[in-house]
Each structure stands twice: as structure tokens, then as C-alpha cells.
Amino acid sequence: MPNCPMCQSEYTYEDRGLFVCPECGHEWSESETTEEAMVVKDSNGNVLQEGDSVTVIKDLKVKGASGAIKQGTKVKNIRLVEGDHNIDCKVDGFGPMKLKSEFVKKL
Ligand SMILES: [Zn+2]
Asked: What residues flank ion ligand 1 with Cβ within 5 A?
């Protein structure tokens, strides 16, 4: 739960889609809270979106696999996730995989 934007109370609760502060009585909707959207950028600084296709810009070693994902490998239909490896995808020949956005380029 977000703190109350009026009095910073931690004791807010949700009621029928609204956040309610029991301390000052303030009510507000979720869309008013300033939650930062996750932005994932590729090696060129282009913003990536769910479902984008990318290419790998350098050979990437894969733990537990015999080979590496080769530079130039195309990866379709990426998903964006939080964390250090912020791209969730399926790489042909390797299966489900998480990649770092800094090692890919948007197609
Ligand atoms: Zn309040």
C-alpha cells in the first residue's frame, strides 16, 4: 500500500478501487499515485516493449549449455521483467532464457 499523499500515513487501505487514509480521511485512486513505469532500453538506448524482436549483439555464454548464444541471434516476442536480466524470452535451441537488455538491439 502506498503512503497517504496528504499526511504520509502508513495505515492506508484499499476500498472499492480507492485508497483510503484512516488518519486524515483522504481518498484517492490508484491512477493518481506516481508509480514509475518500468523502462527497458537496448544497447542503443531504444526503449523496448513487450513483444518486440531483438538481436543479440555479442556472444553470450549460457550456464549449463554447451554453446553460447551467438551474436546476431534473433529473439522474438520478448517479455520485460524486473531485475538485472530484464528480458525474458525464448531463444531457439536454448529454450526459455533471461537476457540483459544491454546485450540486445531492437530490430
Ligand atoms: Zn492521510
From this structure: 4, 6-7, 9, 21, 23-24, 26
- For 83, the grid coordinates are 531485475
C-alpha cell at 3: 503512503
How many Cα atoms sit within 13 Å of 10 on the Cβ side? 0
DSSP readout, 43-59? TTSPEE-TT--EEESS-
The structure's pTM equals 0.64
Give the cell for residue 82: 524486473
pLDDT confidence of residue 35: 52
- pLDDT over 80 (residue 88): yes
Measured on CA atoms in the order 84, 88, 91, 96, is the torsion positive or negative? Answer: positive
**28, 5 in Cβ contact below 8 A?**
yes
